[in-house]
Amino acid sequence: MTPEQWRSSVTIDVPFYDTDAMGIVWHGNYVKYFEVARCALLDSIDYGYTEMRESGYVWPVIDLRVRYPGAVVFAQKIIVRASIKEYLHRLGIAYLITDAVTGKRLTRGTTHQVAVHVATHETCFASPPILLEKLGVAAP
User: What does the pLDDT profile of the chain (140 residues) look like in tens digits?
Assistant: First the structure.
C-alpha cells in the first residue's frame, strides 16, 4: 500500500437526533463522525477493531483535537475523510468534514492512538509489526 491508499471517506446524512435545538450538530457528535470514517479507513487496510484485538493489540485514542470552522446542520449531507498521517510510534489520523454539495470545509480534526498489548495491558512505544504489515511498509 502507499500513503495515497491510507485514506477513506464516508458520506453521512445528518440525522435530527444529532442536532441541538437550533438544528446544529452538537459538538460531541463530530467525534462520532470521525469514528465512522476511522472504522472505514481501518477496514480498508484489513485492520479494523476486530482484527486489532485478534492480533493481540487494542488501540485506545489518547489525544483528540477538533476545529469547527463551520457548522453542520440537520439534513445536511457531509463527507467525512480520514487519512493516516503517522504510524511508527502511534497511529495518527487526520479528519476533514466537508459539505457534500459545495465542498465547503466544515470541521477538521486529528486523533492519536497507541497500541496496548491485550495480554499485558502494556503500552507499546512503537507500533507493532502487524500495523506496518497492513500498511505495506518496512520496519525502520
Answer: 567 779 999 999 999 999 999 999 999 999 999 999 999 999 999 999 999 999 999 999 999 999 999 999 999 999 999 999 999 999 999 999 999 999 999 999 999 999 999 999 999 999 999 999 999 998 77
SS3 assignment, position 82: strand
Report angle CA 27, 31, 35 to the nearest 5 degrees: 160
Q: Which three cell numbers stand for residue 16?
A: 435530527
Rounded Cα distance, 134 and 132, in Å: 5
Burial (0-12, 13-18, 19+ Cβ within 10 Å), 10: middle
- Say whether pTM exceeds 0.90: yes
The strand order across the sheet containing 7-13 reads 7-13, 77-86, 91-99, 105-113, 61-67
